[in-house]
């Protein structure tokens, strides 16, 4: 079985993934791995500023543009780093930018990365060194298990709670049902 | 879209990525799969690229070394910009070393990156610490010292640690 030969399992051939990474060697490595998974189009940006330009351009809907599907960004980059890029994406007024799935890639320790990624609205985090399984797992999670987006004071991004388990402790949240506005998108 | 008043907004979006993958966005059992053989192939790309490790580290370390020479001899205004380049060079060495499993080089890459972040260029002692890092990184590369536990590795680590203890 291959991802492209059986429709039951879907395929990544129509996907456009942006890699924001200042280090060409690592960008090339990630790009080659994604190509193995069958990703149709891979765009490269050397830093957050270049990534912003590409995202803006692709979101403009011009005839030669393809909407971006996933952004894979390194944390440490000159000019504009990955966390700043993530904040820019989540603060956009445009739906086709602010809801973009973002994977934050970093060489920092896993606790730091997960905490910063989660609190700034990343969908997933990867701690270097990157492996094929790690990369595949994150992409599959984004596609197969998307979380609702939450807009709360000081936060916009995927729901930080990953499971649906009942909380057995004392409820300390202040919000009531009246405080929550739910948007159910229909096609 | 339907809505009611509130302070917190919850957006349940249509799963466009599933649609793009050629799957039903409403069927919870329809799941994208990536062929495990392509995951193995992706890992073999890392193995193939490992051959390029010495050349790539040499290229980045040369750039780092040249930037360090510039930082010490250039005009003071350009120093912060050059130090930022050194910070990224050190991080790139760390990335290469961690990807291809060279723990000693990884250790020095992280150590130099973190030290450069707080360096005071007016202090000769701080400059000595950077020199020590660059020296041991060249030795680790040229003598292919791989692991942290190796006797030579311990010597190189203690050289840098002594410089840090003495001068920072």
List the helices and strands and how they pair.
The complex is a heterodimer of chains A (187) and B (168).
Chain A lengths: L15 E5 L3 H13 L4 E5 L2 H12 L10 E5 L7 H9 L4 H4 L3 E5 L3 H10 L4 E4 L4 H13 L4 E4 L2 E4 L21 E5 L3
Parallel strand pairs in A: 1-2, 1-3, 3-4, 4-5
Antiparallel strand pairs in A: 6-7
Chain B lengths: L7 E5 L3 H5 L15 H14 L3 H21 L5 H21 L3 H15 L6 H19 L8 H17 L1
Helix pairs in contact in B: 3-4, 3-6, 4-5, 5-6, 6-7
Protein described:
The complex is a heterodimer of chains A (187) and B (168). With 187 residues, chain A is of the alpha/beta class. Chain A has a single domain (9-146), classed as Response regulator (Rossmann fold). Chain A is built from six helices and eight strands. Chain A has helices spanning 24-36, 48-59, 82-90, 95-98, 110-119, 132-144; strands at 16-20, 41-45, 70-74, 102-106, 124-127, 149-152, 155-158, 180-184. In chain A, the strands form two sheets. Chain A has a five-stranded parallel sheet, with helices on both faces. Chain A has a two-stranded antiparallel sheet with strand order 6-7. Chain A is globular. Chain B has 168 residues and is mainly alpha-helical. Chain B folds into two domains: 15-51, no CATH class; 52-167, Four Helix Bundle (Hemerythrin (Met), subunit A) (Up-down Bundle), CATH 1.20.120. Chain B contains seven helices and one strand; from the N terminus they run E-H-H-H-H-H-H-H. Chain B has helices at residues 16-20, 36-49, 53-73, 79-99, 103-117, 124-142, 151-167, and one strand spanning 8-12.
